[in-house]
Amino acid sequence: MVKKDIVGYWVKSSDGDFDTMEHLYKSCDYSWALFLGHLVIEKMLKAYYVKNIDNNVPFMHDLLRLAEKAGLKLTESQKDFLDIVTTFNINARYDDYKMRFHKQCTKKFTAKAIKGIREFRVWIKTML
């Protein structure tokens, strides 16, 4: 596979997860919407990594570490945002965190996070 095809794979996969995230959000399934939001960003970062570094992406879910390995220049607020979104992966996945995370995922909390995911997605797509 050529680099362009691999980048396209990650973007297409991210786009599918984005659609699912939006559907879950509209259905008020907030914790799972945020879990998918993490995947949306992770896959976009992997596309950026392939475009700029190597075809073989690191096997990791820590979004800030992934962005740093990809050489992505981030503001401090973007770094903080990626740290927060990374927790959505852990908190939605493991039973001992799920209940606390579910309570945290109010409509207001989720709306703010989804807005950030949408904006970050658009921003990184402009660089692909």
Would you spell out the secondary-structure blueprint of this structure?
Elements: H1 3-26, H2 30-52, H3 63-69, H4 76-93, H5 95-104, H6 107-125
Helix pairs in contact: 1-2, 2-3, 2-4, 2-6, 4-5
User: For this structure, what is the CATH class?
Assistant: Mainly Alpha
The span between the termini is: 17 Å
Helical fraction:
over 70%
CATH arch. level architecture: Up-down Bundle
Structural class: mainly alpha
Order of H and E elements: HHHHHH
Overall outline: globular
CATH topology: Four Helix Bundle (Hemerythrin (Met), subunit A)
Main beta sheet? none
Based on CA atoms alone, the radius of gyration comes out at 14 Å
Tally of strands: 0
Number of H- or I-type helical stretches: 6
Residues in β-strands, percent? under 5%
Number of domains in the coordinates?
1
Structure keywords:
128 residues; mainly alpha; Four Helix Bundle (Hemerythrin (Met), subunit A)
